[in-house]
Amino acid sequence: MRTESHERSLILLKPDSVQRGLVGEILSRFERKGLKIIGMKMVWPSKELAAKHYDQPESAMITLGERTIAAYKEKGIEDKRKPIEIAKDIQKKLVTYLATGPVIALVIEGAHAIAHVRKIRGATNPLAADVGTITADYTIDSYFISDADERAIRNLVHASGTVEEAEAEIKLWFSSNELFDYDLAIEKILYDKAWEATRDELVKGK
Ligand code: GDP
Ligand code: MG
């Protein structure tokens, strides 16, 4: 199998997924795509773990703050705080949200796993998400409401954004003995060139 077929992504079904009984529905979307679950557990994250999960370099924090200021400006709201202060405030809300109840943590593996998982999850803001994605189909939140209520946006699922992010997040949530190296029967059909045979070869084999 090609090395690209082994890309890994960390997924968290956040506390609202568990509380709303959506774990099975959401998991089935990743399974039916052909992605392989190589690790899975329930964790009630401490604030420390949640804070580590959302820890970002200062440059990324500033970008998040600037993006938020720009979005506010479009809505005609002026936020006079520094970008870093805004980002720290968002991070605090994210930590509260993630630590509010048990989550399902899983590591998924497959070809282009990070990109496919992000597509299946949909846009961060459910109001902007395409129909057919998790954030569009199962929830109704928006930055309009969450910002006004001073809480994190409730978007059900976290999914790694890049290979580097996935590596760091997988290390944070799983130890190596919690991840399993095994073959799925469907991988032969998804990835194996040798699966295809001509009709003649198949008939001869009878
Ligand atoms: P994700 O990877 O798509 O979930 O999003 P990011 O990694 O960019 O951000 C992590 C979380 O920060 C998101 O799930 C949001 O809850 C929050 N967030 C990101 N951008 C904004 C923003 O512009 N405004 C607010 N209020 N929250 C944001
Ligand atoms: Mg992210």
Write the layout of secondary structure elements.
Blueprint: E1 7-13, H1 15-19, H2 23-33, E2 36-43, H3 47-53, H4 58-74, H5 83-98, E3 103-110, H6 113-121, H7 134-137, H8 143-148, E4 157-159, H9 163-173, H10 187-191, H11 199-204
Antiparallel strand pairs: 1-3, 1-4, 2-3
Helix pairs in contact: 4-5
Bound molecules: guanosine-5'-diphosphate and magnesium ion (MG).
- What hetero molecules are bound to the protein chains? guanosine-5'-diphosphate, magnesium ion
CATH topology of the domain at 6-44 and 101-205: Alpha-Beta Plaits
Categorize the overall geometry.
Answer: elongated
Tell me the major beta sheet: 4 strands, antiparallel
Q: What's the number of extended β-strand segments?
A: 4
Radius of gyration: 20 Å
- The fourth-level CATH homologous superfamily of the domain at 6-44 and 101-205 is Nucleoside diphosphate kinase-like domain
Strand order of the largest sheet: 2-3-1-4
Unreliable residue runs = none
What CATH architecture of the domain at 6-44 and 101-205 would you give? 2-Layer Sandwich
The CATH C-level class name of the domain at 6-44 and 101-205:
Alpha Beta
Order of helices and strands: EHHEHHHEHHHEHHH
